Protein backbone atom coordinates (compact mmCIF):
# COMPACT_ATOMS: atom_id res chain seq x y z
CA UNK A 1 0.00 0.00 0.00
CA UNK A 2 1.60 3.18 -1.13
CA UNK A 3 -0.83 6.00 -0.55
CA UNK A 4 -1.92 7.49 2.75
CA UNK A 5 -5.53 6.68 1.79
CA UNK A 6 -4.68 2.97 1.53
CA UNK A 7 -2.94 3.05 4.91
CA UNK A 8 -5.93 4.53 6.68
CA UNK A 9 -8.62 2.47 4.94
CA UNK A 10 -8.30 -0.40 7.40
CA UNK A 11 -11.62 -1.36 8.94
CA UNK A 12 -11.67 -0.28 12.56
CA UNK A 13 -14.41 -1.24 15.04
CA UNK A 14 -16.51 0.77 17.35
CA UNK A 15 -15.63 0.22 21.02
CA UNK A 16 -17.88 -2.55 22.26
CA UNK A 17 -20.31 -0.37 24.22
CA UNK A 18 -17.33 1.41 25.80
CA UNK A 19 -16.67 -1.69 27.90
CA UNK A 20 -13.19 -2.29 29.27
CA UNK A 21 -12.69 -6.04 29.66
CA UNK A 22 -11.99 -7.55 33.06
CA UNK A 23 -8.70 -9.40 33.40
CA UNK A 24 -10.54 -12.72 33.50
CA UNK A 25 -12.52 -12.07 30.28
CA UNK A 26 -11.42 -14.05 27.23
CA UNK A 27 -9.04 -12.15 25.01
CA UNK A 28 -10.68 -10.78 21.84
CA UNK A 29 -7.80 -12.21 19.76
CA UNK A 30 -9.33 -15.67 20.09
CA UNK A 31 -6.38 -17.37 21.79
CA UNK A 32 -8.69 -18.84 24.42
CA UNK A 33 -6.66 -17.25 27.22
CA UNK A 34 -7.88 -14.53 29.53
CA UNK A 35 -7.04 -11.02 28.40
CA UNK A 36 -4.71 -10.60 31.38
CA UNK A 37 -2.72 -13.69 30.31
CA UNK A 38 -2.75 -12.75 26.63
CA UNK A 39 -2.96 -9.31 24.99
CA UNK A 40 -3.82 -7.25 28.08
CA UNK A 41 -0.21 -6.45 29.09
CA UNK A 42 0.58 -5.37 25.51
CA UNK A 43 -2.54 -3.19 25.31
CA UNK A 44 -1.65 -1.57 28.64
CA UNK A 45 1.91 -0.86 27.45
CA UNK A 46 3.32 -3.02 30.26
CA UNK A 47 5.14 -5.40 27.91
CA UNK A 48 6.29 -5.56 24.29
CA UNK A 49 4.95 -8.32 22.06
CA UNK A 50 7.75 -10.89 21.65
CA UNK A 51 6.75 -11.87 18.09
CA UNK A 52 5.14 -10.29 15.06
CA UNK A 53 2.11 -12.60 15.27
CA UNK A 54 1.57 -11.70 18.94
CA UNK A 55 1.66 -8.02 17.97
CA UNK A 56 -0.87 -8.73 15.22
CA UNK A 57 -3.13 -10.48 17.76
CA UNK A 58 -2.82 -7.56 20.19
CA UNK A 59 -3.65 -5.11 17.41
CA UNK A 60 -6.76 -7.13 16.54
CA UNK A 61 -7.73 -7.00 20.23
CA UNK A 62 -7.16 -3.24 20.14
CA UNK A 63 -9.46 -2.89 17.11
CA UNK A 64 -12.08 -5.02 18.88
CA UNK A 65 -11.85 -2.81 21.98
CA UNK A 66 -11.43 0.53 20.20
CA UNK A 67 -7.98 1.07 21.73
CA UNK A 68 -6.49 3.77 19.47
CA UNK A 69 -3.51 4.36 21.76
CA UNK A 70 -2.21 0.80 21.28
CA UNK A 71 -2.82 0.95 17.54
CA UNK A 72 -0.88 4.20 17.15
CA UNK A 73 1.91 3.08 19.50
CA UNK A 74 2.46 -0.12 17.49
CA UNK A 75 2.23 1.41 14.00
CA UNK A 76 5.48 2.12 12.17
CA UNK A 77 5.95 5.92 11.93
CA UNK A 78 6.51 5.67 8.15
CA UNK A 79 2.92 4.48 7.58
CA UNK A 80 1.07 5.55 10.76
CA UNK A 81 -2.13 7.56 10.25
CA UNK A 82 -2.75 10.63 12.35
CA UNK A 83 -4.61 10.24 15.62
CA UNK A 84 -7.53 12.16 14.08
CA UNK A 85 -7.68 9.80 11.08
CA UNK A 86 -7.66 6.77 13.35
CA UNK A 87 -10.25 8.29 15.70
CA UNK A 88 -12.51 8.91 12.71
CA UNK A 89 -12.10 5.28 11.64
CA UNK A 90 -12.90 4.02 15.13
CA UNK A 91 -16.41 5.37 14.64
CA UNK A 92 -17.00 3.12 11.61
CA UNK A 93 -19.50 0.96 13.51
CA UNK A 94 -17.83 -2.42 12.97
CA UNK A 95 -17.84 -4.91 15.82
CA UNK A 96 -15.03 -7.45 15.40
CA UNK A 97 -16.10 -10.99 16.25
CA UNK A 98 -13.33 -13.41 15.28
CA UNK A 99 -9.70 -13.65 14.22
CA UNK A 100 -8.29 -16.57 12.22
CA UNK A 101 -4.51 -16.71 11.73
CA UNK A 102 -3.65 -18.59 8.53
CA UNK A 103 0.12 -18.32 8.26
CA UNK A 104 3.17 -16.54 9.60
CA UNK A 105 6.61 -16.09 8.12
CA UNK A 106 9.61 -15.10 10.25
CA UNK A 107 8.74 -12.51 12.92
CA UNK A 108 10.17 -14.57 15.77
CA UNK A 109 11.85 -13.31 18.93
CA UNK A 110 15.29 -13.17 17.25
CA UNK A 111 14.22 -11.67 13.90
CA UNK A 112 13.65 -8.12 12.69
CA UNK A 113 10.88 -8.60 10.12
CA UNK A 114 7.93 -10.90 9.59
CA UNK A 115 4.50 -11.35 8.09
CA UNK A 116 1.18 -12.71 9.31
CA UNK A 117 -1.77 -13.70 7.15
CA UNK A 118 -5.15 -13.59 8.84
CA UNK A 119 -8.87 -13.18 8.37
CA UNK A 120 -10.80 -10.83 10.65
CA UNK A 121 -14.57 -11.19 10.87
CA UNK A 122 -16.94 -8.45 11.97
CA UNK A 123 -20.52 -7.23 11.84
CA UNK A 124 -21.49 -3.80 10.59
CA UNK A 125 -24.12 -1.50 12.11
CA UNK A 126 -26.86 -3.32 10.16
CA UNK A 127 -25.73 -6.73 11.39
CA UNK A 128 -24.24 -7.76 8.05
CA UNK A 129 -21.12 -9.88 8.16
CA UNK A 130 -17.83 -8.31 7.13
CA UNK A 131 -14.73 -10.32 6.29
CA UNK A 132 -11.24 -8.92 5.80
CA UNK A 133 -8.25 -11.06 4.82
CA UNK A 134 -4.83 -9.44 5.04
CA UNK A 135 -1.17 -10.29 4.90
CA UNK A 136 0.46 -7.83 7.30
CA UNK A 137 4.12 -6.80 7.36
CA UNK A 138 5.96 -6.10 10.61
CA UNK A 139 9.40 -4.81 11.55
CA UNK A 140 11.20 -4.70 14.86
CA UNK A 141 12.81 -1.39 15.79
CA UNK A 142 14.65 -0.86 19.07
CA UNK A 143 13.24 -4.16 20.37
CA UNK A 144 9.58 -3.33 19.61
CA UNK A 145 7.54 -4.97 16.87
CA UNK A 146 5.63 -2.49 14.70
CA UNK A 147 2.93 -2.91 12.06
CA UNK A 148 4.11 -1.48 8.72
CA UNK A 149 1.34 -2.22 6.25
CA UNK A 150 -0.61 -5.03 4.68
CA UNK A 151 -2.14 -6.40 1.53
CA UNK A 152 -5.89 -6.83 1.85
CA UNK A 153 -7.14 -9.67 -0.34
CA UNK A 154 -10.75 -10.01 0.64
Short overview:
This protein is an alpha+beta fold and 154 residues long. It is 24% helix and 29% strand.
Task: Provide an overview of this structure.
This protein is α+β, with helices and mostly antiparallel strands. It has five helices and four strands. It is 24% helix and 29% strand. Strands 1-2-3-4 form a four-stranded antiparallel beta sheet, covered by helices on one side. A hairpin with a 2-residue loop joins strand 3 and strand 4. It is globular, with a radius of gyration of 14 Å. Mean pLDDT is 86; it is low at 1-18.
* Global shape: globular
Q: How confident is the prediction overall: mean pLDDT?
A: 86
Strand order of the largest sheet: 1-2-3-4
Radius of gyration: 14 Å
Order of helices and strands: HHHHHEEEE
What class would the helix/strand composition place it in?
alpha+beta
Key phrases:
154 residues, alpha+beta, four-stranded antiparallel sheet, 5 helices, 4 strands, 24% helix, disordered N terminus
List the helices and strands and how they pair.
Elements lengths: L3 H5 L31 H4 L8 H14 L2 H6 L9 H8 L4 E12 L6 E11 L5 E13 L2 E9 L2
